[in-house]
C-alpha cells in the first residue's frame, strides 16, 4: 500500500533561470496572528514543492505565501474609479512572505503517516484533541441509538477515525 500526496498550488512562477516558485494566495490581511498558522502553511507549500519535483517541476527554488489584503478604507471607497453601476470594485494589496524550501520535513511527515497507516488500530487521541472527544461521543450516541454495532469493533472505530481525520495524505489499496 502506498501513500498518495495530493494538492494543487494557487500559483507557479517560472524564473529566468527556469527554476520555479510556488505560491499560495491567502485573502486576508497579514497580521501577527498568522504566525500560529504558519507551520501549517509551511508544510502545505513544501508538500506542493515535493509533488512538483516528483512530477517534473524541478527545481523548486522558492515558496511564498501571498496575502492579498482587500483595500477597504474610506479613501478607496470614495474613489469614483471604485464605484460601478453594478457594484463596488475592490482593490487588493499584496504582502509576500517567503517560505523556506524544506522537503525533508514533508518526507518525515510521510514516514509518520506510513507508521500510523500501518497500525492495526488507530492511535489514541491526543490530550485535549477536541475532534477525538467529539468522535468518541458521536460513536457512543450511534451505538446507544442502536443504529450501529452494539459493540464497537476496531474496524468501525478505525473507519470513523479515518473519516474524522481526513487529510490530503490518503492511504491507497
Query: Sheet bearing the most strands, described?
Result: 4 strands, mixed
Strand content: 15-25%
Helix and strand sequence = EEEHEHEEEHHHE
Which strand order spans the largest sheet, edge to edge or round the barrel?
A: 2-3-4-7
Secondary-structure class: alpha+beta
Low-confidence stretches: 149-154, 164-173
Mean pLDDT: 80
How many H/I helices?
A: 5
Could you please describe the fold and organization of this structure?
With 173 residues, the chain is an alpha+beta fold. It has two domains: 1-118, no CATH class; 121-173. It has helices at residues 38-54, 74-78, 103-117, 130-144, 154-164; strands spanning 3-5, 11-14, 20-26, 60-71, 83-84, 87-88, 91-99, 169-171. The model is unreliable at 149-154 and 164-173 (pLDDT under 50).
Comma- or semicolon-separated keywords:
4-stranded mixed sheet, 173 residues, 24% strand, alpha+beta, 2 domains, 5 helices, disordered C terminus
Give me a quick take on this structure.
Helix 4 crosses helix 5 (154-164). By secondary structure, the chain is α+β, with helices and mostly antiparallel strands.
What is the strand and helix layout of this fold?
Layout lengths: L2 E3 L5 E4 L5 E7 L11 H17 L5 E12 L2 H5 L4 E2 L2 E2 L2 E9 L3 H15 L12 H15 L9 H11 L4 E3 L2
Parallel strand pairs: 3-4
Antiparallel strand pairs: 1-8, 2-3, 4-7, 5-6
Helix pairs in contact: 1-3, 4-5
Amino acid at each position: 500500500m502506498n501513500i498518495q500526496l495530493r494538492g494543487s498550488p494557487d500559483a507557479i512562477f517560472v524564473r529566468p533561470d527556469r527554476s520555479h516558485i510556488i505560491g499560495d494566495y491567502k485573502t486576508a490581511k497579514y497580521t501577527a496572528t498568522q504566525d500560529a498558522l504558519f507551520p501549517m502553511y509551511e508544510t502545505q507549500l513544501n508538500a506542493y514543492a515535493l509533488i512538483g519535483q516528483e512530477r517534473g517541476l524541478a527545481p523548486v527554488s522558492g515558496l511564498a505565501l501571498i496575502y492579498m489584503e482587500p483595500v477597504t478604507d474610506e479613501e478607496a471607497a470614495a474613489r469614483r474609479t471604485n464605484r460601478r453601476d453594478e457594484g463596488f470594485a475592490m482593490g487588493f494589496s499584496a504582502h509576500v512572505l517567503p517560505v523556506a524550501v524544506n522537503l525533508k520535513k514533508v518526507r518525515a511527515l510521510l514516514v509518520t503517516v506510513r507508521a500510523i497507516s500501518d497500525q492495526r488500530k488507530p492511535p489514541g487521541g491526543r490530550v485535549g484533541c477536541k475532534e477525538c472527544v467529539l468522535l468518541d461521543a458521536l460513536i457512543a450516541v450511534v451505538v446507544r441509538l442502536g443504529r450501529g454495532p452494539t459493540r464497537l469493533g476496531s474496524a468501525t472505530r478505525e473507519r470513523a477515525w479515518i473519516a474524522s481525520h481526513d487529510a490530503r495524505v490518503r492511504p491507497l489499496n
